[in-house]
Amino acid sequence: MDVHLKEDFRLLGIRPEKWYILLTVIITSIAWELGVHIGALSSLFFPPPSVTLLTSIKLIINGKVATNAGATLLRVFVGLGLGVVPGLILGLAMGWSPRLNVLIDPFIAAAHPVPKIAILPLIMILFGIGESSKFVVVAVSTFFPMLINTIAGVRQISPIHFEVAKNYGANLFKIFTRVILPGSLPLILTGTRLAFNMALLITIAVELVAAQKGLGAMIWMAWQTLRTEELYVSLGVTSALGLIFNFLLQRIAIYLAPWQTEQRI
Amino acid sequence: MISVISRGFNCQQIYKAYQTRDGVVSALEDVTFSAKEQEFVCIVGPSGCGKTTLLKLIAGLLEPTSGQIIFSGEPPDDRPRSALVFQEHGLFPWMTVLDNVAFGLEMQGMGRHERRDLAQVFIEKVGLFSFANNYPHELSVGMRQRVGIARAFVANSHILLMDEPFGSLDAQTKLVLRQELLKLWRNHQKLVVYVTHDIEEAVILGDRVLVMTGHPGRIREEIHIPISRPRDLSFKEQSELMEIKWHIWKILEEEVRKSLWMST
Fold this sequence. Notes:
The complex is a heterodimer.
Chain A: H1 16-37, H2 49-61, H3 64-96, H4 98-111, H5 120-127, H6 131-155, H7 159-167, H8 172-210, H9 215-224, H10 228-256, H11 261-264
Helix pairs in contact in A: 2-10, 3-4, 3-6, 3-8, 3-9, 5-6, 6-8, 8-9, 8-10, 9-10
Chain B: E1 8-20, E2 23-35, E3 40-44, H1 51-59, E4 66-72, E5 82-85, H2 97-101, H3 103-107, H4 112-125, H5 141-154, E6 159-163, H6 171-188, E7 191-196, H7 199-205, E8 208-213, E9 218-224, H8 235-263
Parallel strand pairs in B: 3-7, 3-8, 5-6, 6-7
Antiparallel strand pairs in B: 1-2, 1-4, 8-9
Helix pairs in contact in B: 4-5, 5-6, 7-8
């Protein structure tokens, strides 16, 4: 007897679960829209989705979204680069060498718990009120998640792997490239993702208080002029950026560390 | 005439002590034995008798507190002197089967294509032809141990050190892998030091069995297994084996019982 596997049901190539998400969005939007029209929701605080949609189209066409999102992303990625690279290098060194770890750990333990946004005034005194102080605050805030994850990544490598490498005659360079780097890679990638989210958070926070451009500045401006629909648009763009880059970083992690994918899913 | 020195080693009065929180604990005391080229030496003893420590000393991963291990007939090139097969988890999870097996060759500085070709030959020998590009987590425990064995053989060192390599396998897989191991051993003429807590396994595999007891670890007796190879285990051989097994068990029984009382 032939066995027929039930084919995955798809509508327009999209699986039903995905349609449910879309359905939820549509129903919520319609309810919201109706709620404003019958006067149950105040349009000042909860502008109807149709208005927000039109506003977002307008803001995309006149380039306001692109300019502000661009300014935010520039700060996020320059800061990320400046923070993640030293965090990675120091983390590998501290994970590998217990002596170096003992030496530096007290400083890390003291500096790590300070909320990074709190050091903005200090950084502005040191680096001025221009872009560089914003890069530095973001860099400092991304440095720690990267550092701590990298140290943990090196530490959790089983001693057996070092013994195998030594047994087969690996020198220090080979131990680094064939054991320490790949062994800590999964946690380094997790650290990168946490650092990105931290960078986005801190960038928006910095822009709320000290910037003319950027999504944070756009949110603040919309609040001050009580243009609520613009507030919603900038919030939407911010969360979309967070979603997109988290998704991309997850894909990159699966590509770079394929042996980890099974455990992760 | 070229004088050929037998490739083997000689452990002379090895002592190994560890510093722990409760003070100094002696793991090995006065361990003396030798092993020569192409021999299959089994070390059997209850858990915690210092078998793994002894293996790591021979592998050069640990230094003895006193005593020395003298190797004869050193390989002239930079091949590793010995290759260790670990209990489990010895494979690199971030490397494919192919790269795991080729690891020893890579450390010897062999080129990428050359070492991959050679590794492929040994992967086929252990019957994992179609898994060369899989990662270890995609294999069963038995398959992983075969990868570990292929990696040790391909490195082409003269001494193979095995630390309960089949300890976590089911009985049938164990039987098959033992046969595969013996076949590889015969074809590649290596000195194998095989550590196990399974008396039967030690007696079936070894030319010689060293019986160890623990606290501190000592060699209590050295037993030659007089059964010829290949061991097809006829009725007469089986009863011979039973006798040796019984003899070893009598040496170990007292200690095993003692450790049970101590832990309850």
